[in-house]
Amino acid sequence: MTLYYTLCFGLLMSELLLFTTIICPMPFAMRKKMFHFLSENPVVAKVQYALKITFIFVAVLFIDALQRMVRIAQEGAGAKMKNEMPDVRTETNYAARKFYAQRNLYLTGATLFLSLILSRVFYIILDFIHVQENYSTLQQRTAKASGAAGESEELRKRIKELEAQVESGKAQGRDFDNLKKQAAQQNAEYNRLADEHAKATGSTSNKKHD
């Protein structure tokens, strides 16, 4: 295997490892930290940019492997049409070339296909994390709003109780004012009667002395 196909195989193994890591079960908090790190870290962003360029070269290798495989298949079909009796060495060489062409085609094709799946799954899980965070935030706001509504209802009840107490206090105040007025009137009436009684008593005493 040549150097670039060896690198392509290493890239394929790395993709399989990363894909297994992101889909394996783990706590939500750990998954959120990992995905936020992969999506926001500047070093990871540079690595992703380099991988995009690498996948362009892998796509070129895929096209080259596909062309070789088609050419080898055409050679085999042409040899069968000529009805020639190939020797063992030629047949072995043809089988080896066909095997290498198929191997390179499957290797580069699997690398490209897995990169597309990996990218799609990564962004689906990232969107799911964002939706979960928004849902948690909405739940907290709803809980706070419910608590505020409960407190506001309690405050309304307390205000009504205080208003009732103020009204009762005003009623008691009005009753007290009425009692004061009645007491003042009774006191004035008592003083008037006392004065009349004193006058009447005084005049009677003067007549007896005469």
Automatic annotation (TrEMBL):
It is found in: Endoplasmic reticulum membrane. It is a multi-pass membrane protein. The chain crosses the membrane at residues 7-29, 49-66, 105-126. InterPro entries: BAP29/BAP31, BAP29/BAP31_N, Bap31/Bap29_C. Residues 157-208 form the Bap31/Bap29 cytoplasmic coiled-coil domain. Residues 1-136 form the BAP29/BAP31 transmembrane domain. Residues 170-210 are annotated as: Disordered. The keyword Endoplasmic reticulum applies. Keywords: Coiled coil, Endoplasmic reticulum, ER-Golgi transport, Membrane, Protein transport, Receptor, Transmembrane, Transmembrane helix, Transport. One of its GO terms (biological process) is endoplasmic reticulum to Golgi vesicle-mediated transport. GO terms for cellular component: endoplasmic reticulum membrane. Residues 201-210 have a biased composition (Polar residues). Pfam families: Bap31 (PF05529), Bap31_Bap29_C (PF18035). May play a role in anterograde transport of membrane proteins from the endoplasmic reticulum to the Golgi. Belongs to the BCAP29/BCAP31 family. This is Endoplasmic reticulum transmembrane protein. The lineage of its organism: Eukaryota, Fungi, Dikarya, Basidiomycota, Agaricomycotina.
